[in-house]
Amino acid sequence: PFTVATVLAKKQIGLRDFTPEGISDATVLALAQKVEPRVEPRFCTQGITPARVEVRTAGNRTYSREVSTPPGHVDNPMSMDDLMQKFRDCAAFAINPLPKARVEHALKMLVDLENVADVGLIGRALR
Q1: 71-109: b (≥16 Cβ within 10 Å) or e
Q2: H-helix or E-strand containing 124?
Q3: Region for 38 from its dihedrals, namely left if φ exceeds 0, alpha if ψ lies in -120 to 50, beta otherwise
Q4: Quick count: other Cβ atoms within 10 Å of Cβ 4?
Q5: What are the residues facing 65 on neighbouring strands?
Q6: pLDDT exceeds cutoff 90 at 115
Q7: How far apart are CA 17 and CA 14, in angstroms?
Q8: How far from the centroid of its chain's Cα atoms is residue 76's Cα?
Q9: What pTM does this model have?
Q10: Are 126 and 106 in contact (CB under 8 A)?
Q11: What share of the chain is helix, strand, coil (3-state, %, to 5)?
Q12: In angstroms, how far is CA 101 from the centroid of its own chain?
């Protein structure tokens, strides 16, 4: 319920949403109370499970979306922009967060990896 409510309220979800401040967001918590998880037997398979989300509005309109594989799965790869944003999000929550300029420098090398003469430079940029 919390993750669904977060995505509905904020249109995205990231590590910040799982901090003490994030898990205390009153809007998300109120919306999470309205989320009713249901098990759909046709989705009960081994491995990556498909999912369906259905939203019913106060005006009794229904919106739904079904995915057979989650984003990031080999059959549903994330876009380069999404991968880069996820990298930035994770880097911001490192024990010793790096300056944004170093994160961007490392990203630039990772995106152009085939042209990086020494991959050790990426590790050094992330230290």
Answers
A1: eeeeeeeeeeeeebeeeeeebeeeeeebeeeebebbbeb
A2: helix 120-125
A3: beta
A4: 19
A5: 53
A6: yes
A7: 6
A8: 14
A9: 0.77
A10: yes
A11: 45, 10, 40
A12: 22
| Residue 66 structure tokens | 């079904």
Amino acid sitting at position 92? A
pLDDT at 25: 97
pLDDT tens digits for range 70-108: 888 898 999 999 999 999 999 988 888 889 999 999 999
Q: 63 by DSSP, 3-state: which?
A: strand
Let me know how long the chain is. 127
**Secondary element (H or E) of residue 122:** helix 120-125
Return the C-alpha torsion angle 40, 45, 47, 48, nearest 10: -30
Residue 5, burial from CB neighbour count under 10 angstroms (0-12, 13-18, 19+): buried
